[in-house]
Amino acid sequence: MGRLVQAVAGGLLALSVGLPVLAQNSKASVAVAAPSSLKGNAQAGKAKAEDERCIECHGHDGNANDIEDGVGNIGKFPRLAGQKAAYIIKQFSEFRSGKRSNETMAIMAKTVADRDLLDIAAYFASQKLVAGDSQGANPLGQSLFLAGDATRGILPCAGCHTGAAQEASPENPRIAGQHRRYLQKQLIEWRAGERRNSPGDVMNAVTRGLSDAEIDALANYVSSLQ
Fold first, then answer.
1. Which CATH superfamily is domain 4-126 in?
2. What pTM, to 2 d.p., does this model score?
């Protein structure tokens, strides 16, 4: 996998990403040069998100609520609206390299050109995230998110995601308002070791001691944040 040099500024993407150029894929052949040439075009990205069928799973505005096949909120498709472009690109790059596993996204990652990815990420990042599907106040989830549990070595989520769940680093996604069931699914996969693409495996370590009830509580609380 190529270089991933991070430089996020002004709320938009200014990311130097050495995405892998796949020999069997002539589309993924954009030369990566200066960061100034790597700012995604959100307007162009809207049409490209449709052309590349991103909206079929993630929704026309990135909120994954308007899926025409009626699948809807089953924990399978994340909301990308308001997500940091740099994080979207990082995850896409890792689907392409195999570092993160998902059969559908692995296929998609090999067919989307690097230039188009920059624009698509910029489009979703520019969209407004709608309210999450939290089931109400959750003191347990709030406590774990803000304070963790030192007696069990569980770090507070806010250490990386901040109190509003919106950290600036490309390594840490915006998780506020994300679908509750999607959050549950990801936390369970981190805990089981099925997903292992966080820096230093920190998410695997953090989730290892969480019970199902605590994961549900955290997912519910984070989904309530804006």
1. Cytochrome c-like domain (1.10.760.10)
2. 0.79
